[in-house]
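Page 42, continued from yesterday. The earlier attempt failed because a stray header line got pasted into the input along with the sequence. Redoing it now with the clean sequence only.
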Amino acid sequence: MEISISFKDGPIEAEITADETDDYEEVLEALSEFVDGYSPTVSQPDENPTQNETTTTENTEENDSTSEVETQNESNGDFSTLQEIPESKLQRVMKTGRVDNGDISEHPYVIATTDSLGDTETERLLHTSVLILSVLDEFHDTDRMKTTELKQALADSGLNDDNFGNIDKLDEAEVYLNRRGRGSTATTEIRRPGKDKAKELVTNLIEDI
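This time it went through. Structure tokens are written below.
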């Protein structure tokens, strides 16, 4: 009688045969030695997959967080501000006014010549309004004022406030200012682009003196 024993793992095959004349104990011992000394060819699974998954997740979250911060910084941007101008220089061209408990007790106005604020009177009225409202916003945390008060501030700046309504003819008026209401209850508010424009306008005033 012939006995055949096969062993197979991947590309490795082993076969041991014996007939009735062979010593079966020697055959089995040879097979045992082969199995004991055999190293599997198939790669073992990761013993700690959870740790790898955790590391990958942490890296992904960190990258997402960094991207979010970068996007937020790009959207916020750096805006021009009147407070970047030395106060001594600003006071040479403007009175910054006074606000008490949210009420404007002294409105800001331009004390320098306004010729550099526009080629036409209408442009000068618009740009002077931008300056007055920007000063209120940045130095007094008040972003709007009654239109009647604004017109008085324009008059104190040496401009003809009777022509204030003509600023509606300028495309920039709605970009820089937000005008609401009519008559004695009307208000005028500074918009973000107007605040950005204000620093350029003050710089022009300072250079012109």
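Notes: The CA atoms of residues 148 and 207 lie 30 Å apart.
Reminder to self: strip header lines before submitting.
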